[in-house]
Every structure is written in C-alpha cells, then in structure tokens.
Amino acid sequence: MAAKIGYIRNARSTGGGSAPPASTDLLVYAPSNFDELETALHEMQRAGVETLIIDGGDGTIREVLSRSHDIWPANGLTYAIVANGNTNLIARSAGALPQDDPVSAIQRGGLLETRIPVLKIDRKGHPSLRGFIMGAGAYETATRIAQEEIASRHGLQVVLTILKLIFSRGLRNGDVFTVSHDGTAAVTEARMLLGLSSLPGKLIFGLEPFWNTDAGPIRWLDIAANPPALLLSAPFVALGKPRRWMRQRYRSGSSQMVELTLSNDLVIDGERFAPGSDGRVCVTAAETVTFLTP
Fold first, then answer.
1. Are residues 147 and 268 located together in one domain of the fold?
2. How many other CB atoms are found less than 10 A from the CB of residue 160?
3. Is the pLDDT of residue 224 over 50?
4. What CA–CA distance (Å, rounded) separates 3 from 16?
5. CB atoms within 10 A of CB 47
6. Same-domain pairing of 152 and 44
7. Which of 234, 220, 111 is nearest to 167 (CA)?
8. C-beta neighbour count of 240 within 10 angstroms
C-alpha cells in the first residue's frame, strides 16, 4: 500500500524527541540539507503522501512549504506541525499535534482543518519563498543582533532586542525603502519598521499589532522613521489599538499584494534573506495551506 503520511524531521531543531520509525504507512525523512529535502519531498509525492507532518520550527515549515507547493498539485497536500523549533509562532496560530505520538493522532481522525493564507515572496534571481511573517527595518536589525550577539532567533528574544534598542538613534532613523500596496503609487520614505503577516489572530503573548485589516489577507504594520513618543506608543501598537494622534506615523492595514524596494535584508519566519538582485520584493497571499489541529 502506498504511504499516505509523510514525516519531515529537522534533526537540528532545538526541541527534543525523535522521529517515529518508518512503516508501510509512514515515510520518514531527516534531511540534512536543502537538496536532501527536495529529494525527500519528491519521493513522498510519488509515493502518494497526502498528509505531511513537519517536525521543527518556523524555518523548517518555511523551507518545506517553499518547495512542496511546487511539487504537489494545488490543495493536494495537508500539513501538520510538531513544534520543535527555535521559533514556533506559526504553530501558535495553525495549531500543533502532540509531540509524543503525532502519527496516531492523525490516524485516529477527528482533527480539525485550519486553512491559512501563506505569503509568497518573489525576488529576482532567487527561488520563491513561502512563509507567514516577514519584516524589514528594525525587525531585521533586531533579528540580526539576536543572531550575532545572543545566538538566538526566538520570537521573544527579537521582541526584547527591539525594546532594548528602542532609544537607539540609528534604529529610530530607520531605512529608506519603497512600498506599494495592491498596485497603488509607491511611496519612498525612511521607515523604522515594516512587518507583514498572513497569520490570523494574535501572534505572541496576546499581541496583535495590526488594525484596519479588512482589505486582504496580508496584514501589515508600517512605522515611519523617528516616530513620536515611541515608548508611550509601543503598548498601543502592540495591542492594535492606536490613539488618534499616532496614525500619521504609525500605520496599519491589509492588502492583497505588497511590493517593496529596499537595499538591506528582510526577515522571513526568523531568517534573514536578501531582496531581489534589483532590490525588489513582491509579496502575495493568493495561496492557502491546510493544517491539521487537535
């Protein structure tokens, strides 16, 4: 009988545990590089896998989705998460299976299906990436410092690093880049931070830094350089409840497509990536992903 469940284990994830043994109903892989991951996904597709368990963190999910969407036909694969990574923000929204026996949880049935839009990030000269959280400006700076100085990519550590640097003139001055929403006229200005997400609801610790989000699946937060009363404004932004006096420099909304032109790196699900060779990045969320949740 062709295997119907696939299991991808990131052996370098920070969580404990190990992958279950393979069987006639379960294909198990622990790829050590991207070529092995690509090979594993093709083998599972040929074997008839219809449900794929991803054992790892946000980065593992990003790398699997970025490849599997081009291997399986549309809606041909359902995913499940075992949260064993540095950052598990995706699992917080999509839901995660029990770490002790996720395969049995699927085989018993009765799980819910959660359908979530996925960001597709296109950059000239690079393969498309698929993920759920993207940031630039202060978000990239904080991620880089957390990686280089603290050797961490935890979502909490990035947030704490941003708070630590909140009075840094360089951080507040921001980066100059261009942003366009849904094909509207592009606006070039210095921005302290730009964040995008297709995840629904709250992201971490009850924080939901978005408002005016009825226009599309990509929720975004855009903070201009040198925003006024940054320390006072931060709690209102984090809860998605800005005061009227904030709205000129602290902006939020949602879109079907966001186009960027920037010179520095951006962060996608906890990892830094370069923009396209022309400095441009195009983000859409027309595709969806179905996750199994308890």
1. yes
2. 15
3. yes
4. 26
5. 12
6. no
7. 234
8. 17
Strand 187-197 vs strand 133-137: parallel, antiparallel, or unpaired? antiparallel
Residue of 193 and 203 predicted with greater confidence? 193
Q: Which of 7-16, 17-26, 97-106, 143-152 has the highest mean pLDDT?
A: 97-106
The DSSP bridge partners found for residue 81 are 54
Taking residue 46's Cβ as centre, other Cβ atoms within 10 Å add up to 10
Length of the chain equals 294
**Start-end of H helices in the chain:** 34-46, 58-68, 89-94, 102-108, 138-148, 155-164, 169-173, 230-238
Cα 73 from Cα 54, distance rounded (Å) = 19
Domain shared by 264 and 224, yes or no: yes
216 Cβ partners below 8 Å, 6+ apart?
A: 182, 254, 255, 256, 257, 285
CA distances from 268 to 169, 170, 194 (A): 25, 22, 12
- The answer for residues whose C-beta is within 8 angstroms of residue 248's C-beta and 6 or more apart is 224
Indicate if 85 and 177 belong to the same structural domain: no
| Phi/psi-derived region of residue 283, left when phi > 0, alpha when psi is between -120 and 50, beta in every other case | beta
Return all residues near 76 (Cβ < 8 A) that are at least 6 apart.
50
The residue range of the domain holding 206 is 131-288
Residue with structure tokens 């297709």? 198
Whose CA is closest to 53, among 73, 25, 32, 33? 25
